[in-house]
UniProtKB/TrEMBL annotation:
InterPro entries: Smr_dom, Smr_dom_sf. It comes from Caenorhabditis remanei. It comes from the Eukaryota. Gene3D superfamilies: 3.30.1370.110. This is Uncharacterized protein.
């Protein structure tokens, strides 16, 4: 299993055990893993039509290079909202 898949699996397991069903925590994920995870969760929520709103928590970017919100910006870019 690739590192990407391992990190993605850990994120899913962590969120399933600690977060409400429509809240997805992206803390401590790499940008690539976070973007992939967001895409998967959006597709899952669309398919199930279980929740009207989905919350993806990116944090304050305290550990990011130069304070740039890397995960948040990458997710927004991939969803064409920047």
């Amino acid at each position: 299993m690739s590192r990407l898949h391992e990190k993605l699996k850990k994120a899913k397991k962590c969120n399933e055990s600690r977060s409400p069903w429509n809240r997805y925590d992206l803390h401590y994920l790499t940008v690539n893993v976070a973007v992939r995870y967001v895409l998967e969760t959006v597709e899952k929520e669309k398919t199930k039509k279980k929740h009207k709103d989905i919350l993806h928590v990116t944090g304050n970017e305290n550990r990011s290079v130069d304070g740039v919100a890397a995960i948040k910006n990458a997710v927004l870019r991939d969803f064409n909202t920047i």
